[in-house]
Amino acid sequence: MNNTALLYALGTVVCWGLYSVLLHKGSMLMSAGGTGDMTGARMKAFLMVGIAYLIVGIVGPMLVMKSKGIPMTADAFPMGGVTWSLLAGLAGAVGAYFLLMGLSSGKGPVVSKSLVLLVPAIVFAGAPIVNAIVALTKDGLWGYTPWQFYAGILLASGGVALVMKYRPLGAPAGPPKAASVTQAVPIAAPQAPMMTQFAPGYVDVTTRTWQVS
């Protein structure tokens, strides 16, 4: 592989690696402040993806073709190329739809977070396997492929199985908090005021003493 192809491939890896995380985040935010209908949130997020495809997939090529002087007349688009290219676009769009539905199909916050890791791993490990099988069959190369290539396909399949089996299920719950116990302090019953018994007599106000009669 030449350096140019490698750079484009790495750019695709980065973009598609971020695609699932960004798409899941967008669909979650679409439901914020609304009715909580996830179907509507998914469709609104997918609509934004379509607008992005429109900008990048239609406006971008037209600008490049115009700047390079490439003709855009009807006879410049052979029917066979149009048909297969449209099928490729449909496959990509339907795949993006399935990816979005898979990312946002969690039944709770913990499951939803794990799907962001699980679904893309299955997609981006399984897609090369499908691509290899279809390409080998289309070009009739099964008998000309070294065994290491098949070993790589098996290893990729095993990786998908490991991802599905040992997917993250959320952080483990901590030890239960001990219930706070308030010690009851017995409250003594109020005692009756003590009555001091005095001998009969009178108070001498000058000396402030009790004078016994």
Walkthrough of the structure:
This protein has 213 residues and is mainly α. It folds into two domains: 1-105, no CATH class; 107-170. Helices cover 63% and strands 4% of the residues. The protein is built from five helices and two strands. The protein has a two-stranded antiparallel sheet. Helix 1 (3-30) runs antiparallel to helix 2, helix 2 packs antiparallel against helix 3 and helix 4 runs antiparallel to helix 5. The termini are far apart. The model has no long low-confidence stretch (mean pLDDT 79).
Query: Please, how many domains?
Result: 2
| DSSP strand tally | 2
- What general outline do the C-alpha atoms trace? elongated
- Secondary-structure element order, as H and E? HHHHHEE
Biggest sheet layout? 2 strands, antiparallel
What topology does this entry show?
Elements: H1 3-30, H2 38-68, H3 79-103, H4 109-139, H5 147-165, E1 201-204, E2 209-212
Question: What is shown here, in short?
Answer:
The chain is mostly helical and 213 residues long.
Descriptive tags:
single chain; 213 residues; mainly alpha; 2 domains; two-stranded antiparallel sheet; 2 strands
